[in-house]
Automatic annotation (TrEMBL):
Organism: Oryza meyeriana var. granulata
Name of this protein: Uncharacterized protein
Pfam families: DUF247 (PF03140)
Domain of life from the UniProt record: Eukaryota
Key words of the record: Membrane, Transmembrane, Transmembrane helix
InterPro entries: DUF247_pln
Residues that span the membrane, as ranges: 313-339
Keyword hit for Transmembrane helix: yes
Length: 349
């Protein structure tokens, strides 16, 4: 019985802390009863001391990111209802606003998850990690038939580059033309010649967040889906070497402040270890059509030859001018040879 009371006490303390820290509950403090009974009033701005930035990062990491440190959200919501009887706003509204601002600040997502049947209300999450996961949904799920080549590994960024693929940073902005809503919005344009990828800003917490979101999908793929796992597999194989990370950094697809590109590549290489994922399943892999488009271009010899010619000769203007001059000289020589043969065969003409 003591263990049960201790467990319930921990739930109460954790839920209360979440409401105060992330749900704006500090702005709804009860005063002494007035003539009209109990009332809720806002606290004075600046009453609380500012939280140290490093402590704030640690709090977000431990409460939002860690899969093993989650409290069921219905517990938080029920305590909120019992604490603020005259408050009609669900706890999920304020906490969802915090999660939205958190992901917008880290530039991982600008999306706002909504219910299909009630667009004005946010959906009910299972826990705070699930609330973050709801913001990671591709704008358009590309359709892909079951036919075609079986989906294998993604090529590295350098392999795609030498096959003529151009990498382009896709803006994370719903109001901009062609903008993305989250980092999962990867698309191919230009008949497979351009791969548009939203910028991934990497810091010390990026890997922890991605791994725990993948763990959420791995534990319940029917409810959470596998979109983020598909994205992590894509990035881990695309940026698996230091030269890949360097190329993607130059194109603005990756921004990081770690020690070197090799360190980032090692983190990417280790990102999906132990993950169970069927890349050839169109239901699990929302990037299946993107892989097939890039694979067709990669296996096209004319495209590879043109890409090699462009990078070898047309990257340097002097080499390009020399190639054009040599081509013109060759054409003139061929024409001269043709006329010489015709003059020999038909001397009267």
């Amino acid at each position: 019985m003591g263990d049960l009371h201790g467990f319930l006490r921990r739930l109460l303390l954790d839920a209360s802390y979440i409401l105060v820290r992330f749900g704006d509950a500090v702005w709804h403090r009860r005063e002494a009863p007035a003539e009209g009974g109990n009332r809720v009033v806002p606290s004075v701005e600046g009453e609380e001391s500012a939280v140290d930035q490093l402590e704030a990062v640690a709090v977000v990491r431990d409460v939002f990111y860690l899969a093993e440190n989650q409290i069921p959200f219905f517990v938080v919501d029920k305590i909120h209802q019992l604490t603020f009887l005259d408050c009609n706003t669900p706890a999920v509204h304020a906490i969802a606003r915090y999660a939205h601002d958190l992901l917008r600040g880290t530039e991982y997502s600008v999306a706002t998850p909504t219910k299909v049947e009630e667009p004005e209300r946010p959906p009910e999450p299972a826990n705070l990690l699930h609330l973050l996961h709801m913001h990671f949904t591709p704008t358009v799920l590309t359709s892909s038939s079951g036919g075609g080549r079986p989906v294998g590994r993604w090529r590295t960024a350098m392999e795609y580059y030498f096959a003529g693929v151009t990498f382009k940073k896709r803006p994370l902005n719903l109001s901009a033309k062609g903008g993305a809503r989250c980092i999962l919005d990867v698309k191919v344009s230009g008949s497979g010649g351009t791969l548009e990828v939203p910028q991934l800003r990497i810091d010390g917490e990026t890997w922890r967040l991605l791994r725990n979101l993948m763990a959420l999908e791995q534990s319940n793929p029917m409810a959470a889906g596998t979109h983020l796992t598909a994205y992590c597999v894509f990035m881990s194989q695309l940026a698996s070497t230091a030269t890949d990370v360097e190329l993607l950094s130059r194109r603005g697809v990756i921004v990081h402040g770690l020690g070197n590109n090799g360190e980032v590549a090692k983190h990417f290489a280790d990102l999906c270890k132990g993950a169970v994922f069927d890349a050839d399943d169109a239901e699990q892999n929302y990037l299946r059509a993107v892989w097939q488009t890039l694979d067709r271009g990669f296996r096209s010899r004319p495209r590879r030859w043109m890409a090699w010619l462009k990078k070898k000769y047309f990257a340097n203007p002097w080499l390009a001018a020399g190639l054009v001059a040599a081509t013109v000289g060759l054409v003139c020589t061929v024409i001269q040879a043709v006329y010489s043969v015709l003059g020999y065969l038909k001397p009267g003409n």
